[in-house]
User: Fold this.
Amino acid sequence: MQDRSTQIRAFSSEQRLEILRLLKTPEVHFAGQWSADPAEFGVCMMLIAEALGVAQPTASRHVDLLRQAGFITVHRKGKWVYCRRQEEALGDFLAWISETLGTDAPSA
Assistant:
């Protein structure tokens, strides 16, 4: 189980939430990625920075906190760094929030 305070902190930034939104459908948002299939392999860190309109070090800090929270995985392939969303961890966190606050999760 991940540290819940780290997970809450990861959700406290609009840019980190945007990264999670973009990675939900990488084949749509990063269709131009040529180095690897974005849905199967993940999305290149540079493309994430570009989509956010921030410098790569800023995107890296956001991605690192999302990784610490367990919401994404990060791996290297050669000189490239790729990120993928972890649906199970996100679902677990949302279920925990719902249980903790005693509310039903809204239907999508």
